[in-house]
Amino acid sequence: MTAANSVLLAAGALLAVFGAVRVMREPRRISTGLVLLAATVLLAAWAVSVLHIVAPGPALELGVALMILLPILSLLAGGVGLVANGVVITRREGLRIATAIAPVVGVGLIALPLIAYQVIDPGTNRPWWVPVLAAAVTLIGLQILVQLLAFTGYAVLYARLPRRVDSDAIVVLGCGLRDSAVTPLLASRLDRAAEVYRSEVRRGGTPLLVTSGGQGPGETVAEADAMADYLEAQGIPRSGIVRENRSRNTEENLRFTLRELRGHDLDPARLRITVVTSDFHVLRTATLTRRVGLNAQVTGSRTARYFVPAAFLREFAAILVTHKRVNLAIAGVLLTLVGAVAIYSMLSVGPVISE
């Protein structure tokens, strides 16, 4: 084994162990997804390099497939799938910003390989700024794509982690009403919360059930009140329900729920709390429970399949905004690198001017 192979194996194994320890100690750290993705890439590169020593021909073919063909085909397939999903969700939900996310991202995935080709295209009859702009767009696109892969992979992993089976409090998050009526998406969350509640009661527990959500635009009542009425109609006793009816977003759901629990002379730090939301919303909610200091696990209710891609991409966009300073700093470094290389090239050979 060469020194390079040893470095790849050691780095990949260390990152894999580090990621596994983070998952076991505190699975709500979203950055763990990046650690595990890096470990996977390094170990895959090590496997290809070892194969190259044993069988150079197949190793070269495998390397080309993994490094070039698979990414390109995956981008094209993912892009076409998201555009198709955008058509479906627009027909069912109507055209709005939320439904436009999937097709816009899909077009971006399809365009990214074409833009990247402009960086390596040896053609000379094009303005000098074309490859520079293409390089900048490609690097920023890859930065976002890597984070999307890490977020998606870790969301799948987090959803499959074992959960404890006992809860002192169950918090169900609102997601909008239709006038005063519970929507199908919200009903799915409430049904899941009722399922968790009944499971606790069967084990002899008496959990508190918190409905969380204020009154939004176009709503005639607070979400928490409509949610509580829905649960009471399903047989959940009124005395076991607490209504948090002031929050406007997920973070406020959790922060105001903490106040409600303390207002009932309960110490959230000592409670075993289960937060119920939609399956696409689980990982971001988990990271927010950690941020606000809520000792909680998060479980998700099923969502209609056609709605998942757009909703999941919206969650990812929210993650990017939450960590905007880090993302802007990385983007700034990448753009500075592109600018430095462009200036060096121009000073060395001069810009290529199209005829």
What would your notes on this structure say?
The chain has 355 residues and is α/β, with parallel strands linked by helices. Among the domains are: 1-54; 169-304, 3-Layer(aba) Sandwich (Rossmann fold). The chain contains eleven helices and seven strands. The strands form two sheets. A five-stranded parallel sheet has the order 5-4-1-6-7. Strands 2-3 form a two-stranded antiparallel ribbon. Helix 1 packs antiparallel against helix 2 (32-54) and helix 5 (129-159) runs antiparallel to helix 11.
Task: Produce the secondary structure layout.
Blueprint: H1 3-25, H2 32-54, H3 56-93, H4 97-120, H5 129-159, E1 169-173, E2 177-178, E3 181-182, H6 184-202, E4 208-212, H7 223-233, E5 241-244, H8 250-263, E6 273-278, H9 282-292, E7 296-301, H10 308-322, H11 324-349
Parallel strand pairs: 1-4, 1-6, 4-5, 6-7
Antiparallel strand pairs: 2-3
Helix pairs in contact: 1-2, 2-3, 2-5, 3-4, 4-5, 4-10, 5-11, 8-9
Largest sheet: 5 strands, parallel
Oligomer classification: single chain
Instruction: Classify the helix fraction into a percent range.
Output: 55-70%
| CATH topology (fold) name of the domain at 169-304 | Rossmann fold
Order of helices and strands: HHHHHEEEHEHEHEHEHH
Query: What is the arithmetic mean of pLDDT?
Result: 90
Ends: how far apart? 52 Å
- Identify the overall geometry: globular
Structural class: alpha/beta
CATH architectural label of the domain at 169-304: 3-Layer(aba) Sandwich
Specify the CATH homologous superfamily of the domain at 169-304: HUPs
User: What fraction strand?
Assistant: 5-15%
Low-confidence stretches: none
Number of helices: 11
Q: Give, in spatial order, the strands making up the sheet with the most strands.
A: 5-4-1-6-7
Radius of gyration: 25 Å
CATH class of the domain at 169-304: Alpha Beta
